[in-house]
Structure formats: C-alpha cells, structure tokens
Amino acid sequence: MRKRKVLVPIVLGLFVLFAFIVSTTKPAIGENLTVTTYYPSPHGVYKALNVSELILKPLDEVPTEPTEGMIFYSTGKAKDDKGNKIDKGIWICSGDRWYPLMLLEERTKK
Prior knowledge:
Elements: H1 2-24, E1 58-59, E2 71-74, E3 89-94, E4 97-103
Parallel strand pairs: 1-2
Antiparallel strand pairs: 2-3, 3-4
C-alpha cells in the first residue's frame, strides 16, 4: 500500500511535466501543403489552340493595359481611352488599338 501512495505523486508529476513540455514546444510535424501544376502550362504562346467551348464574360469597361492579341467582350457601354464608344461585341487588340472581331446586334422580340 505504501508503494502505491509513493507512485501516484510521481506518475502525476511526470504527467504534468510531459503536458508542460508538449504545450510549450513547437510541433515537430509541419502543415501539409499541396501544389498542383499543369504541364504544359496554360499560359504561353501556342501555334494553334482548339477549344470546344469558350465563355467570355462581358465587360462594361475596356481593359486598361491591352496586349497584342487580347480579346474582350463589350456590353456596348464601354469606351476606349479616347472616349470613343465601343459597340457591343467581341474586340481584339492589335498594336494599341481595339478592332471588332464580331459585332453583336441587339435583337428585339416582335
């Protein structure tokens, strides 16, 4: 019986010491980080690009820093940097100017 009375404080003390050490040290196990990459990269120059579906989000404003070959879909409310109205449709940048690739007419129901 006497041995049991001596063991209880020792075990309790070791448990408290272990809990203190664990709570004050940095965990040895780091967090997981998953990085997904694609090959070939989706950004770059392609000789030919085939897509089965292309969805363009209509914009009310002309892109401010266009690059050669950039396209955008205008809602018809957009204006270029000179204040000229950009009609509704798909536009392509060549040099520093926007040219219509396909203009879309407003259709009204009769």
